[in-house]
Design a protein that fits this description.
Blueprint lengths: L1 E5 L7 E4 L9 E11 L1 H8 L11 E2 L3 E9 L11 E5 L13 E5 L3 E3 L6 H5 L2 H14 L7 E4 L7 H10 L3 E6 L4 H7 L2 E4 L5 H9 L6 E4 L4 H9 L6 E4 L9 H5 L3 E4 L4 H5 L3 H16 L12 E2 L3 H10 L6 E4 L3
Parallel strand pairs: 9-10, 9-12, 10-11, 12-13, 13-14, 15-16
Antiparallel strand pairs: 1-2, 1-4, 3-5, 3-7, 3-16, 5-6, 6-8
Helix pairs in contact: 3-4, 3-10
Keywords: NADP
GO molecular function, one term: oxidoreductase activity
InterPro entries: ADH-like_N, ER, GroES-like_sf, NAD(P)-bd_dom_sf, Zinc-ADH_QOR/CCCR
Length: about 325
Amino acid sequence: MRAAVLTEYNAPLQIREVPDPRPGPGDVLVRVMASGVNPLDIKIHRGEAAHAKMAPPAILGIDMAGVVEAVGPQVDEFQVGDEVFGMTGGVGGVAGSLAELAAVDARLIARKPRTLSMPQAAALPLGFITSWEGLVDRAGVAEGHRVLIHGGAGGVGYLAVQLALARGAQVFATGSPSSQEVIRQTGATAIDYTSTDVDQYVDRYTGGEGFDIVVDNVGGATLDASFAAVKRYTGRVLSALGWGTHSLAPLSFRGASYSGVFTLMPLLTGAHREHHGHILAHAAALAGDGALVPRLDSRSFALEDANSAHTVVENGTATGKVTVLPQL
């Protein structure tokens, strides 16, 4: 098969012929129809994501959607011809989705929703799983909650907004001036963080009480702002980017709680992988009901264009999730 291979960090991916993967026990072989490109893929490409544990030579690509071509031993829930999607590799030394074929752990995938195209399905896994693990698993988002999502037009934030709305929450999302309309189109209340400070929007939208749940998709100073925006006593701050040094005083003085989200853990450890498959089944159900629609960049990239796709994401010029289509 053909694959885009990382031969050394921060060097162009090389299109090479490599042996076809074989599905082992518990695996399925998937013909990859679309590979989603995440900012984490770019960091791995540059050699800046040691926690992802991906050393050259390697096939990158964390998210994928495709068609089952073969089923390994001990797999009963999928059969040849099933359309599936998932967050299946590209970290932890497991070959990713920038290839024509991928052997993937069947616990990590779910059936693709019929309402979504392959590129749309490939745009969901990492962002939706991150959002679910924070909003549902950690914070129990539900009707009546006021939820603040930082970076509401971003790859994760855009899905988090839709998930929180689908579960009955009242949702507010921060973004730049250019992203305000995108946020409003999801049904959330848009907040321009460049012209409104934390105290102002906490007063305006919560009467000074703070938000029940604050989701940080930016990190750094935005996580610090989250500690100041959360509701006293019962509030919960969530972040997948809490890797810096932060003062917990603002959070402690509010008596609130913080939860970290490390979405890669099942891929890196092998534990609890079935939970990712279950989460994606929820994503498929929401998409089937029209409550979850990813935002895609309008450009199409073939496997030979994988470096261009990475450049678009790295430069921040994408207008939605970028996908590579290995079968083009």
